[in-house]
Amino acid sequence: MTDQTPDKHELLARIAAALERLAPPALTAPDFDAAEAFVWSASQQRLNPVKKVNRVDLALLRGVDRVRDLLAENTERFAKGLPANNALLWGARGMGKSSLVKAVHADILQRKIGGARLRLIEIHREDIDSLPVLMGMLRDAPFSFLVFCDDLSFDSGDTSYKSLKAALDGGVEGRPDNVLLYATSNRRHLLPRDMMENERSTAINPSEAVEEKVSLSDRFGLWLGFHKCSQDEYLEMIRAYADYFKLSCPEEELRSQALEWATTRGARSGRVAWQFIQDLAGRLGKRLD
After folding, report:
1. Which helix (H) or strand (E) covers residue 108, if one does?
2. Distances (CA, A) of 51 to 17, 102, 145, 181
3. What value, to the nearest 5°, has the Cα angle with vertex 279 and ends 276 and 284?
């Protein structure tokens, strides 16, 4: 009688092959010379290079001079290998928080601070849980990294903030010396007020529970506040954009159109100013290159 049953060695080889197919792919370090910025894909556990970063020149960011200088100095120290702080940029919408992070990064590269080996890595809010994996990938790379999360906040019942807290604290291994975290948020404390109030009402020691939530923001050594701009600051942004892109428009006409644009949107901000400039350039038949 012929035994058609696979022998033990063949069977074990099949099992090993099946397990290997099921296992997640090994992390491979990307070519950090291939791009200045990357986007972290948590599902694929890889960094995708960004061919062209969507950003504006640092000189175009008006009305935020103080916070601009503070973030630029902090980033420059980090690029030089000196001590620097994680930064939280919080405050009014449309005032250039994320634009400032990208502009400062570009300025560091342009001036070749630290040999122009500073890389910007964006991590999406929903991928915060994967921060430890990302940190492990960056730890031994011969580059410096700004890990950037835009519009960061947490909703009631969301526990992923603990991953961010651990990353900021560094855990047992400590945050890699070549990694700094920058985040933008409309909330100063990243968590909604009702979440903190709920913690206070249900906790055995309410003050300690709220302190646990608020202390997340305290992990950022540098707090930079962005506030709504005045009419003069808004008009200064408009003039700066118009001059930079050589948009020919009489001063009084530019002023009246810009104010009318802001009035129809019920707000004055850097974002509103940029939207007006896009509209103006389109009407003038000019490209914004």
Report:
1. helix 97-110
2. 37, 14, 17, 22
3. 125
146, 101 contact by CB (below 8 A): yes
The CATH T-level fold of domain 37-226 is Rossmann fold (3.40.50)
Q: How does 78-109 read in b/e, with b if 16+ C-beta sit within 10 Å? A: bbeeeebbbbbbbbbebbbbbbbbbbbbbbbb
List pLDDT tens digits, range 238-255: 999 999 999 999 999 999
Helix-then-strand count for the chain, H and E: 10, 7
Q: Helix, strand, coil proportions of the chain in percent (round to 5)?
A: 50, 15, 40
* pLDDT band, residue 22 (cuts 50/70/90): low
Beta strands per DSSP E along 97-221:
118-122, 144-149, 179-185
Residue 41 identity: S
199 band by pLDDT with thresholds 50, 70 and 90: very low
Dist CA 208 CA 210 (whole Å):
6
